[in-house]
Amino acid sequence: MNFYLKTFLEVISVTIPIFSIIAIGYLFRRKEIIKETAVPALNKIAYYLGLTTLVFVSIVKYDLKEIFNIGIVKTLYLTFAIFIVVVFFSVYFLKISKKTKGAVAISSFRCNMAFIGIPIIVSAFGDVAAAKAAIIIGFMTPVNIIFAIIFLKVLGGEEKKKNYGRLLLDFIKDPLLIASILGILISYFRIVIPKPVMDLLNILAGLAIPLALLTIGASFNFSHVKKNLKLLIPASVLKLIIEPAIAFFIGRYLFNIGAVDTSITVILFAMPLAVAAYIMGKEYDSDSDFISSSLILSTVSSAFTLTLWLFFMKIIFK
Q: What whole-number distance in Å separates Cα of residue 71 and Cα of residue 256?
């Protein structure tokens, strides 16, 4: 089978299950199998238990020292620093509610590197590349969380006056950040986790994807996609085209990190909106309807844009 067609089919094979689970959540809500009052509790379980455990497990499976490349880290952080400035000034002057500003900002940079990124990387570049991708996710998770909280609490979120002491405390106590730091430390020092404990963690991590997607479907309103389309399109363009383009030029021409490492970095930055963004949006009182709409639109669009980015990488690096 043609490589490009295979890659496109791989993307579709990932997005179809995602949409199916979201649809089940939507139908369950329509049939009142999932009550409206139960959705916030499901959000908390997905955020504090499922996603936190998944982040931790995805990092500790690999030895940090064996696949670490400082050039990739430089590319990651410089790309993110440049892009986050672009996002801030693109959103700050918009004449919309503060809640929606935070939602647009987080929808423009949170990438689904784990749930969709790793399957794509394995298919295109193999298992070693997937291990490097996991390290990238480990380094990106803390900064993603930091700036998601900043945007949701400072730029958007609650309309009341901000308590910056509480903001700092929220950041320090965030379970995803704690899981990321612990995972990197355990991976770096090669600390062995007992098998029964890992088995338990893997079971809990298995909650993350289906539960998070079910809660999206349960609270999704299709009218919001059309309502927010004017802002959803530029947010998706920023995420799927501008951010990976910045990563390409920095990795290829500034740090020259190599063909495979550049390709991995670009593809991971080209991922659609992360499911975690919706759950964080709910936790921090943002415009969750906009975020859920952005998740759907960016995931559908990424089936096309990811194929283009993979094709571009193949041509550039022969």
A: 8
Give strand pairing partners of 273.
Answer: 111
Q: Give the model's pLDDT for residue 200.
A: 92
Tokens, residue 295: 């998740």
Q: Which of 208, 216, 212 is nearest to 294 (CA)?
A: 216
Of the chain, the percentage scoring pLDDT greater than 70 comes to 88
> Which helix (H) or strand (E) element contains residue 107?
helix 98-109
Query: What residue type is 207 in one-letter code?
Result: L
Mean pLDDT of the chain, nearest integer = 81
Band of residue 117 on the pLDDT scale cut at 50, 70, 90: confident
SS3 (DSSP) at 56? helix
Residue 299 vs residues 28, 30, 34, 72: alpha-carbon distances, Å: 22, 23, 24, 25
**Taking Cα atoms as reference points, which of 158, 137, 122, 164 lies closest to residue 56?**
137
Centre a 10 Å sphere on the Cβ of residue 252 and count the other Cβ atoms it contains.
Answer: 21
Please give the distance of CA 204 from its chain centroid, rounded to a whole number: 19
The residues, ordered by sequence, that sit 6+ positions from 194 with a Cβ below 8 Å of its Cβ are none
Give the best-scoring range by mean pLDDT among 98-102, 249-253, 291-295: 249-253
Q: What is the pLDDT of residue 253?
A: 93
What topology does CATH give the domain 3-316? Na+/H+ antiporter like fold (1.20.1530)
- Residue 201 three-state SS: helix
Q: What is the CA radius of gyration of the chain?
A: 19
Contact 46, 212 (CB under 8 A): yes
Whole-model pTM: value is 0.75
DSSP 191: P
**pLDDT above 60: residue 162:** no
Picking from 22, 17, 49, the residue whose alpha carbon sits closest to that of residue 215 is 22
Return the domain boundaries, the chain. Answer: 3-316
CB 147 within 8 A of CB 111: no
